Amino acid sequence: MFFYLSQVPQWLAENGHAVWADWLSFLRVFQYITFRTAGAAVTALLLCWWLGPKIIALLKWLKFGQEYSDKAEEAGGLHARVLSKKGTPSMGGIMIVLSLDVTVLLWAKWNEFLALSLMSVVVLAALGFYDDWVKLTKQDKAGIHSKVKLAVQLALGLFISLYLWNHPDPVKSDLIGELVVPFYSGGIVFAGVGLVGLLITTAAIVGSSNAVNLTDGLDGLAIGCTLIVTFVFIIFTYIAGNKIMADYLRVPYVEGAGELTVFCAAMVGAGLGFLWFNCHPAQVFMGDTGSLALGGVLGVIAVLIHQPFVLVIAGGVFVLEAGSVIIQTFWFKHTRRKFGEGRRVFLMAPLHHHFEKKGWYESQVVARFYILGILFAVLALSTLKLR
To answer: Does the N terminus or the C terminus of the chain have fewer Cβ atoms within 10 A?
Structure first.
């Protein structure tokens, strides 16, 4: 909305109100993406701070707290965990989603990329909200069936993939038909219908959504790692939306991608605001309401700027967490079929619980995963020059 204020001085000048145009010339600052990016980050942060206590109080009043022990506590052996998670309200992702959506509508210039991103946030947040509601009202940690969640995520990924693939603008359809590989200066163009592109796009959205969801198990872990990845995409989206910088760094130029910089900045602001309440000991958990939405929209943004593989690098912590679950599940089933008894690779999956069971304090795991996340982020940013 604020972007359109920048057009007011020009409109006044064109309609014979030069004096008023001169007085209101300061409104032109809203046309600059850098200014709106900073404004979005601060607005989302303040809005999340303001909403936080109110939403936490509401969740407590509604008794939307986790009264059952989490999987790690049930498994035992977490001698380094000082506080139990029981009773802490969940669904805190509501404050992230509300702050993000309102801020983006205020500070960004509307385009298709924003529409796809906001749609993804709303759809996945609604899915996560329903899952959290089932868990908290029925006190059933299983929530809705995993096949239902996967079906919705796949439907969203396929919708975005097919929308871009069939887009009349060849630049936007190339988001599916051309693959950009890190450390390689050219692009790989898919012949024919580009089914590989459809697969990669859908996998990026579904995989990212589930990976962040799996990482959300310790106070501040998922949101902190999400913030690190989002900082990387603030830089990538800005470059992708700036033709001069994109040409210089040999990054595909995507017209309109600059507005995703404002979106990412709003994510950072909302995430920092939420971390204020989610740091150890957490006053609230984001739940699936936040984790599915944040992970999924990171996948969408990566697709919209031709960088799904950069997301794999920047989100290395998420890859490790999801990979640990896949490896553990596969090996347990394989050994149970072969030996009659399931065996484990890790003491517990996802990976953060493995280190808890090894005796690391929760705050140690989170801090060390943050460090790993920063290293992965630096590696992702290095792909801009190492081509």
So the answer is: N
SS3 at position 188: strand
In angstroms, the CA 385 to CA 387 distance is: 6
Domain for residue 364, yes or no?
yes
3-state DSSP call for residue 259? helix
pLDDT tens, per residue, the chain with 387 residues: 777 766 655 666 666 666 656 666 666 777 889 999 999 999 999 999 999 999 999 998 888 876 655 655 555 556 555 566 777 888 999 999 999 999 999 999 999 999 999 999 999 999 999 999 988 887 666 678 788 999 999 999 999 998 988 877 776 667 777 778 887 766 666 555 567 888 889 999 999 999 999 999 899 999 999 999 999 999 999 999 999 999 888 888 898 999 999 999 999 999 999 999 999 889 999 999 999 999 999 999 999 998 999 999 999 999 999 999 999 999 999 898 888 888 898 999 899 999 999 999 999 999 999 999 999 999 999 998 886
Rounded to 5 degrees, φ, ψ at 195 are -65, -30
Q: Which two tokens stand for residue 250?
A: 């040999």
* 107 and 152 belong to one structural domain: yes
Q: Which domain holds residue 27?
A: 1-31
Return d(Cα 170, Cα 180) in angstroms, integer. 16
Q: Is residue 387 part of a domain?
A: no
Cβ within 8 Å of residue 259, ≥6 positions away:
33, 108, 109, 110, 111, 113, 114, 241
Integer Cα distance of 177 and 106 in angstroms:
33
Cβ atoms of residues 356 and 365 within 8 Å? yes
